[in-house]
Amino acid sequence: MVHIRKARRSAKRARILIPAPSGGGKTWGALTLAKGIGGRTVVIDTEQGSSDMYDHLHEFDVVDLSPPFTPERYVECITACEEAGYEIIIVDSISHEWNGKGGCLELVDEIARAKFKGNTWSAYSEITPRHRAFIDAMLRSRAHIIATARAKTETAQVDENGRKRVVKLGMAAETRQGVEFEFDVVLDLVHDGHFATVSKDRTGIFTGDPKPITVETGRRIAEWLAGATPVDDEETVSKARNEIRKADTIERLDMVMRLVAQRVTERLITENTASELGSEAAARRTALAIDNTTAVTA
Which of 71, 164, 167, 222 is deepest in the core (most CB within 10 A)? Predict the structure, then answer.
């Protein structure tokens, strides 16, 4: 059956990409945005601990990710950070997953030699799903995701009045082509002083000339997110409802409702649905109390 629903803005977590050349301020910009958005922050650091130099900017924890930079290791780190309750995950940077030691490009060559007689085109059929799983881990995360990427200036030669001239086309992130389409905001750091140009913006809050990334930039993103229409994660609600129905002790029921409260803070369950689940839990509590009374009387 085809389900048609009313359109609504349901984005509740940030999905931001910050490409920049070496020394361009990727980590600084990501931490500054995180401070403005607000929340417990962790950095997945592939840059040999470079994030530690910015401990004065914002309170955060670090996961040191060393080679091999396989997609699966990134996914493992993101999952661990989610389970630890971090509200903001900075992936610094995603470039290593693509062209770092043990990243996708190296894996393509290895698979091509081992299985496809050197045919890299065939090897991509195995790497693409693995890379996709990494991208999906960021997009589906319960946390805000701020990803950085190494970048280089993309140029092209054009013919102008009979003369050839090299022109700058913008920044090209060092990752698989097209990854910027997956993010809500792409801030290209291109100037000294942490100035950024916006190459993609679904929020509608970035306009005009290049501007520096500040804590206020993060606050504006947080305000935009706060205006989103709350929605339930259907799988989470269904699981909670089933756990309430299966609860065979008051203690178990109390534990389920504590988890429901936690899911509300994680924005996976809305306040209205949590209230409905509370009513179901109250009914289940009454049934358990009756069962216990009957058992004692018998």
Answer: 71
